[in-house]
Amino acid sequence: MHNSKLLNDITRQAFIFSFVFLALSCVEDPPTQIIPVLGKRDYIWTVDTLAYPGSFQTLMRDMWASSPKDVYVVGHNDQGGHGGMYHYDGKKWSPVNILARDGGGVPNAPITLSGVYGFAPNNVWAVGEHIYQNPNPPPNFLDSSLIIHFDGTLWREMLIQKGRQLGPLWGISKNDIWFGGAWGTLYHFDGIRCTKIPFDTLTHFSFMTGFSSSNIYATCSRKINFDSVEDSLLYLLYHYDGTNWTAIDSFMITPYNYTRKFGLSLWASPQGNLYSATYGVYRFLGNGSWQQL
Fold first, then answer.
1. What is the CA radius of gyration of the chain?
2. Is the peptide bond prior to 168 cis by the omega test (within 30 degrees of 0)?
3. Distance between CA atoms of 285 and 156, rounded to whole angstroms?
4. What are phi and psi of 3, to 5 degrees?
5. What pLDDT digit, counting tens, does each position of 88-145 carry?
């Protein structure tokens, strides 16, 4: 009798152990974490030469593309308008005829381009300057603002209030575009017309980018004269909140201080981070703080 009870206890304990083991072994494993495969960085770069017939000076400054088969590059060419813009169709680069005498819609005045930006193959903008002979030198030449637009068929010049040379441009949409330039030159396009916006006339725009129509950034510079043999440059970061442009950060380069806080170029990432580059890469942390990467 005693042996039978002992046998039953052992059997019962073995059954309980087996049940617990089976239950634990049936617990589902956590899902396998899927790590996305990063894009390869084994690109093959090739060199293309842009040379307009008869020119000896070509300096490209900016690039924009709607696709790998629709790429624009703009800049300066000594031909005064010829060779200042090239288009890439996926196979080759070709000079773009933007002047009226070549079949374009821009008046036949010497021009140079500095920036290009767009929203679609039939909605591309470029900026730069008209160059005029000064009747009362010095200086020998004068400049004025130039804004041109491509509608898919023809490049045309926008009628604007006179300003100085333009460089950076950026827009959140086809009806909300900003254009900045030298000596405080600033324009805004609302989908109908370009309006000149009052700005500090000692400030020069270098670069623009943004996240929305009320969250735009621009880097600028301003020359500081100390009435001595020394000149310094003040670099500023401006922010537009949908109403006003405000300087939110700055640093100064002097003959004795070359330390930079941020660069001149800007990029607003899709993740909401603002990056700057020139003599290093920096990420804006807010409140005047930057992280050098």
1. 30
2. no
3. 41
4. -65, -35
5. 999 999 999 999 988 899 987 789 999 999 999 999 999 999 988 888 888 888 889 9
Backbone angles phi, psi at 136, to 5 degrees: -130, 70
The pLDDT, as a whole number, for residue 12 is 53
Dist. CA 74–CA 37, nearest whole Å? 35
How far apart CA 149 and CA 118 sit, in angstroms, is 9
> How far apart, in whole angstroms, are the C-alpha atoms of residue 10 and residue 119?
79
Query: Is omega for the bond preceding 138 within 30 degrees of 0, making it cis?
Result: yes
> What tokens does 269 get?
């990432």
Residue 151 sits at the vertex; the CA angle it makes with 149 and 157, to the nearest 5 degrees, is 30
- Record the pTM: 0.83
| Mean pLDDT value of segment 190-203 | 96
What is the set of domains in the chain, with CATH numbers? 40-163 (no CATH), 202-293 (2.40.10)
**pLDDT of 6 above 80:** no
Here the tokens at position 38 are: 């990063």
238 within 8 A of 251, measured Cβ to Cβ: no
| CA–CA gap between residue 32 and residue 25 (Å, rounded) | 18
